Amino acid sequence: MQAAGDSGRTANVCWAEVVDVGPRTTEKGSEVDIQAYHGVSGATHQTHVTNLSKAGYGMISLSVYGDPDDAQYAAVWVNRPMPKWSAIHGVDGNAYQAWFNTNVQAGYGASLVSATGSGGDAIFAAVMSKGVGAGWVAHHGLTPSQFNAVNTSAMTSGLRPHSIPRTLIL
Fold it and tell me: Domain for residue 104, yes or no?
């Protein structure tokens, strides 16, 4: 993805990994078990994906940030029933697009998308879920003017932005 006047690199500061946030109480008084972490490598993120998904957690927030050659990941997971999902991280635009197309054909819809870097150097992390249904569109690799045109068309159709990687903010 490209952004006007921005190298596409983010400027987040992370100090340490935090994994077990523990139970939290909802407005209705029930506890929700949440796991969260930040500032981890792609390999550590993959370990969390493997372990937390096996334990019944689903990802509700995902971010990739920093230099694409040393990308860092942050995620929030919740232990509750979730729709079937597919995730990917650490891939370039072409690999992301191929994964995206395959998942759309399998009935998945875009849930979480994050990217760091710009142009051909960008890397992506994303989650797609079953049951997202109709009423969504996704576009990748847009120039700023293309983004504005697509955004205007979507807004006119009653759609609102759901997930816009920071690298695209104009």
Answer: yes
